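Consider this one:
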Amino acid sequence: MANILDYLDWRGDLTLAQDPFNEVDNLILAELSFVDFGGIVPGPGEGRAVPLWKAAEAYFAKTEGRPIDMGVLVPNQIPELLRRAAASPRFRDMKLNGFVDHLDTVKAEQFAALAAECGDGTVYLSFRGTDDTLAGWKEDFYLSCMREVPAQKMAVTYTEAMAHQYPRIKLRLGGHSKGGNLAVYAAMNAPEPVQRRVTAVYSLDGPGFPSQIVGSDPYRSVMPLIVKIVPDSSIVGMILETPEPMRVVRSDQKGVMQHLTFSWQVSGNDFEYLPQVSPSSQLFNRSLNGWLESLSTEDRERAVDALFSVLRSSHADSISDLMAAGLKAVPTMINTFVGLSEADRRHLIEAMGLLMAAVRSRSSR
């Protein structure tokens, strides 16, 4: 069994000139956008790019060797990934630029991105997936009931800005989880001159889009560029419509833990692939999307607001806060749940029941 850390140990000595960019390299750059490069890597148009090895040195100097808690939903191996990438000839001299990290808990907005000059004549725009914050997760849920969430709009603006900063250079866009959705959305809504420079769009277990978007001309125009990779028991990557072909990667975990990309198995310079997603994943896709289609846009939004009003009633700002509060948070959350309208309670129970059924079906495999 091997993952992306093993890949860096085994093949990190090969430069892109010796072994061209591949899907595993894409995943590594997608995960590096989870690192807090604030004060280390300049924002768009704010300064010269920083070599990855130098950014890593500054990052670890800032953390002073303390254990780095990335939150319960972000793999704690990411700092180690940064350390090994910075030591490898394949990644160490890549230059980082355009770091953005935006969070507004009141407006439920979360967006972060990073640009990497790969050294092969391309720039990779890495969009961070959902982090530990409830604001980020609420925005994810809004994907089902809004034509455009704030992070998607920011992703388009960011892509335009970095395309302007790197004129005439080919672009790759990618991200894990919500980051994959943002990469696709940015590509399909970028100006045509920018679109022509995009060579690939990577959605790594990223949620899809409502049917009206996947049926649109802008989506169809970029669909040939989309590389969608999901684990065999995918949950997040099966949400909403995903008409493009999917590559199914083998994971050494079960259930929802397959979403964590350090469980994805690597062989040589590629992932280990399976013929298709599991029957339970296909069933979840049909069940969830059928349920969403049965609700009006207004009812979907009410269900999302109801869910997060319950979660936020414990005064938690993150999933880690909720877990730390444990049983102490339950009475307040129950009181909030009771205070909801009958319709909101019904939608909330349906949504939670569907998701829990999906989790149980995967965990038992």
In short: Residues 145 and 296 are 9 Å apart (CA to CA). The chain has 15 helices and eleven strands. The radius of gyration is 20 Å. The longest strand covers residues 95-104.
